[in-house]
Amino acid sequence: MKSTVESRTSQGDPRSGANARTRGPARAGMVNMKDVAQHAGVSSSTVSRVIAQNPAVQPETRDRVLEAMRELDYVVNGLAQSMLGRGSRAVGFLVSHMVGPTFADVAQGVEEEVSKSGDLLTIITTHGDPEGEMQALQQMREQRARAVLLVGASRTGSGYGESLQSYQAFLSAAGTRLVLCGHPALSSVPNVPSVHYDNAGGTRMATEHLLALGHRRIVYLGAQADHSTAEDRLRGYRQALEAAGLEVDPGLVPDSTFELDTCQAAMEELVSAGRDFTAVVAARDEIAVRALRVFRRHGINVPQDVSLVGYDDMPFMADLTPALTTVRVPYRELGRRAGRLISNGDAAFTDDVLPVELIVRESTGPAPEVRAG
Q1: Under a CB-based contact definition with an 8 Å cutoff, are residues 339 and 332 in contact?
Q2: 156 and 230 in contact (C-beta within 8 Å)?
Q3: Nearest Cα to Cα of residue 251 among 231, 232, 228, 277
Q4: SS3 labels along 59-121
């Protein structure tokens, strides 16, 4: 078989032989520490001390080296500096899917804090793949990242705790911290701090609001097993009903997921089957919007016929018709808290829980039977 690779040192190649040794000035970005030292008239070790901000270097010498670096457009090897514990370091932001403004708000909050220390936020999406998650952790470990944030919902069950323990040990061996953001800390992994919010408290407040309006047949839309956020939000709904002395009707908690299409299909099935209900608690604002789409298709008015509550208070929820009652989560502050935890270097066990707030708008009203009475 004839090779498709041609020799680059053939006689006709102008870079071969003597020409290869006289290719002119180095390309931009190829300047090294030795070049800077020669240009400034100092030793390479002096350049190294200037880069490391060693106070023993005389101001005049430091200025001469810095001027040589500017003239030669010398770029400091940031990765090498971070591996030596100097300069900027990466902060990994690992999330299953970077969708919607909620994760963007968290990321902005983190970036606001870690940038004060000169650190760089690196966003990595794992698409829910454990192998992809491990590869991301390996990348952060190789870069000697300052910390890795596991952001958003996690898997539930004993296996998750074991995975978290292995992640923590794997990263700490390289001096990288592991921090949870958006889901609770685990007592079985005491060295992994957490910043999250009152997930269950939000749906509990939403359900209590509907109960106070006279609703008793309340649908919960967005139930999913093995998903920490979904399970916590369903738990708040159950707590509110049980506190009111009401049993949870399995028929009003359809099997679905956190995904929009499956929730819309579940809502469609409830309506088409003529299921008796007067209110819906949706696990996400986007799920509530899909429910509203189903109601309009079937001529069901909100809130006259059915009241509707979302969760997250995403942008434009107040601009819907009707404006959506929802649970507001301080996502930007969640990111800031996580960023401060990293920047402060506090290695103590932390389980910081932020409060949420029910925002009452036009999509909820008295139950039809209460209004009629």
Answers
A1: no
A2: no
A3: 277
A4: HHHHHHHHHHHHHHCCCCCHHHHHHCCCCCCEEEEEECCCCHHHHHHHHHHHHHHHHHHCCEE
- Cβ neighbours for 368, distance < 8 A, ≥ 6 positions apart: 278, 304, 305
What average pLDDT is seen over the chain?
Answer: 83
β-bridge partners, 90: 120
Q: What is the DSSP string of 258-298?
A: SSHHHHHHHHHHHHHTT---SEEEESSHHHHHHHHHHHHHT
The token duo for 148 is: 């890795």
Name the β-bridge partners of 200.
none
Query: What span, in angstroms and rounded, lies between the C-alpha atoms of 19 and 10?
Result: 12
CA gap 287, 269 in Å, rounded: 15
Residue 132's contacts (CB-CB under 8 Å, 6 or more residues apart) are: 126
The rounded percent of the chain whose pLDDT value lies above 90 is 50
Q: Give the count of beta carbons closer than 10 Å to the beta carbon of residue 9.
A: 9
Q: What are the DSSP E strand ranges found in 297-372?
A: 307-309, 326-328, 351-354, 357-359
Please say if the pLDDT value at position 28 is more than 50: no
Instruction: List the single range of 129-133, 214-218, 308-312 with lowest mean pLDDT.
Output: 129-133
Amino acid at 62: R
Grade residue 273 by pLDDT with cuts at 50, 70 and 90: very high
Kindly write down the DSSP assignment for every residue of 126-189, as one continuous string: -TT-HHHHHHHHHHHHHTT-SEEEEES----SHHHHHHHHHHHHHHHTTT-EEEEESS---TTS
User: SS3 helix, strand, coil % of the chain, rounded to 5?
Assistant: 45, 15, 40
Q: What is the pLDDT of residue 141?
A: 85
β-sheet bridge partners, residue 194: 180, 351
Task: Tell me the per-residue pLDDT of 161-206, one tens digit each, with 9 for 90 and over.
Answer: 788 888 888 888 888 889 999 988 777 777 888 999 999 999 999 9
The CA distance from 82 to 145, in Å, is: 8
pTM of the model: 0.75
The whole-number pLDDT of residue 21 equals 32
Tell me, what amino acid is at 317?
M
